[in-house]
Amino acid sequence: MEWKETDRPSPFYWLGTSMFDLIIQTENLVVRTFRLSDAPRVRELAGKYEIAHMVGSIPHPYPSGMAEQWIGRHDERRREGKGYPFAIVHQGQLIGSVGLETDGGQYLELGYWLGTEYWRRGYMSEAAKAVLQFAFGWLSKPGIQARVIVDNAGSKRILEKLGFLFAGHQETVFHNVRQRDVEIVHYVLTRDAWTAHRI
Fold it and tell me: What single string gives the DSSP state of each residue in 25-62?
């Protein structure tokens, strides 16, 4: 199967044989499903303290074998409609991850991390934009939510650039790497807001 987005002008096009082997080509990136061979690179990038400091779900030090186990669960999560993780690739090199997860509600949750040497180049905004179009276009979701640590200014800028709005509430959770409680800020992007933001 080949599917290309043609309903509105966009720099993005989509190619894939199925939901389990999806490739999204953007102007500068390839956003694709993970392969087991990506595990060493995932461990190399996500194992840096700067990543774990800002992403509560990533431990530090990064355990051996964790990347293989994480990638090994992806197909099952896609089949169950619970998760859609994607590798971000630039010039043939894996540079980060962006994905969608659900706890059973209508809204999926956007999550991401990017190798530190690729920060501040616009790559995450570009990759996340493609994945949001996947969520609203292919999956027909009514909205996407995101949660970030309150002091993660870079991540908040990305969400605001994509059209997310502050949801008006916070929570406090214990951060294993920081070894203290941190405040979490919630953002939401509805389908209508996404459409308006793209016009």
Answer: E-SS-EEE---GGGHHHHHHHHTSHHHHHH-TTS-SSP
The residues facing 146 across adjacent strands are: 110, 187
In a domain, 189, yes or no: no
For the chain, count helices (H), then strands (E).
7, 9
What tens digit of pLDDT does each residue of 71-122 get?
A: 999 999 998 889 999 999 999 999 999 999 997 778 999 999 999 999 999 9
User: What domain range includes position 120?
Assistant: 13-140
Residue 148 domain flag: no
Structure tokens at 41: 């690179």
Q: Does a structural domain hold residue 83?
A: yes
Nearest in space to 147 (alpha carbons), one of 104, 185, 115: 185
Say how far apart CA 49 and CA 61 lie, in whole Å: 8
pLDDT at 9 exceeding the cut of 50: no
Report if residue 87 sits inside a domain. yes
Task: Give me the residue label for tokens 């990347």.
Answer: 67
> Domain of 52: which CATH number?
3.40.630.30
The residue among 113, 83, 86, 114 whose CA lies nearest residue 101 is 83
Using CA atoms, how far apart are residues 124 and 45, in angstroms rounded to an integer?
Answer: 15
Instruction: Provide the number of structural domains found in the chain.
Output: 1
Q: What is the CA radius of gyration of the chain?
A: 16
> 118 to each of 18, 95, 156, how far by Cα in Å?
29, 7, 17
